[in-house]
Amino acid sequence: MNVLSVSQFSDDTRTLIYPVQKENLSAQLTAIAEETSLPIAILDAEVKAEKSEITTFFTTDKRIYILGLGAEPTSHQIIKAFRTLLFKHKAKVGTQVGVSLKNCPVDWIEFVVNGMELGKYEFGLYKTEPKTAIPLFENGTLELRTDDFKSELIEKGKHIADTQLRLFTLLNAPSNFKTPQTLASWAMHSGEKYGYKVRVFDSGECQSLGLFALLAVGQGSKSEPEFIVMEYQGEGATQKVALVGKGVTFDTGGISIKPSENMHLMKSDMGGAAAVLGAIEVAAKLKLPIHLIGIVPTTENSVDGDSMKPGDVIQSYAGKTIEVTDTDAEGRLILADGLSYALKNFQPDVLIDLATLTGSIIRTLGYHAAGLFTTSNELGKQLKRAGERTGERLWRLPMWEEYADHLKSDIADVRNFSGVPHSQAIAAAKFLELFVENHTSWAHLDIAGTAYGDTDLAPQRAGTAYGVRLLTEFITQLTKDPANDKSQH
Question: At 394, which helix (H) or strand (E)?
């Protein structure tokens, strides 16, 4: 899709889109009526500007969509509205589409382009009927009529969308099409294309390195674990940020097996890995001035005669012993190795892990926010602010020392599951805290409720690529804040 900046729409642009907000709606509709010759009485009666409301009108030669954005729309709401419109009407919009962004903030350019690009995603990955070509995305043109124009915002919207689209496919792929080796291959190809380092350690090398917790989780699967280490070093970088993402490509729960009802959704248990893969790629595409480390411990958690058993005591990269009281609390085990490896080998200034870790966080926050756990008030504020700006929201939960009492073990340094029927997301964060060596700028994001959703677009549920825009915004702001420039100290 070619994107152009125009002062007036071309005569042969047959589809026009006018986004409207609840604020000053009457004035917006009056302007649309004057421009399109649509009757103002009909516009006033039909258009309410509700979120993602799509109202279609026709003139003698134009199809006109008036797209509701609600009140004070966030970037997430703008992206979602445009994605929904394109997703539902992509076969109708033709090859040339115009979007009026007159009197809109300039940064809406990025959100509109991103949303429209995401609208082309097809959920039926393995359906056998031929896919219908979409003219706009094959060889079409998007005209943006704006008061101000910044081509870099178009590129940013497209770059992020391209990565998100490929992550959708990765997230939605079933486990027989997605193994630890698939994630490793994704990282290798991305690194080669966008110019950052990727090293993949196979199970034998993991054994030599001492990644024993990762190996323990994966010992019941025929697909061997992999340990993916990515490194992007942007020009002028003064900050080193390490991201660690849980990459369980399918989670049965192991011997502590999950209920069968929703187990098919456990193909999404690599949502944290997807966020890290995407954030590294986007940073490289945008050439952000940051030193970024991405670590993805990836495995399956399967049921087999060799599977890890409840009550087993396993080793870890950090040297701590772990009593495995629940094999379905496996994500924190592989994250422990990933966090320890990042600290020992890269000494990052900021350390963040992301994981679809607990059902507890869904019961606490639902599907509208991820859990944020950190002992750093400054980092907590920075991440929460990035979440508000992108719509990938976070809510901070306590990390009080009393929650660690439930992790004490009689026979090992720590046990992996608290065993109590409450505060399990917090206990998981307290477990991970034991492996970050009192790092003063560490955060754990439990994204179990946000990595898989999109039920308004998908037939059932689908991957959201949650975390890519959040981390990109966080990193971008980190590079702009003079207080974070170590060269000035």
Answer: strand 394-396
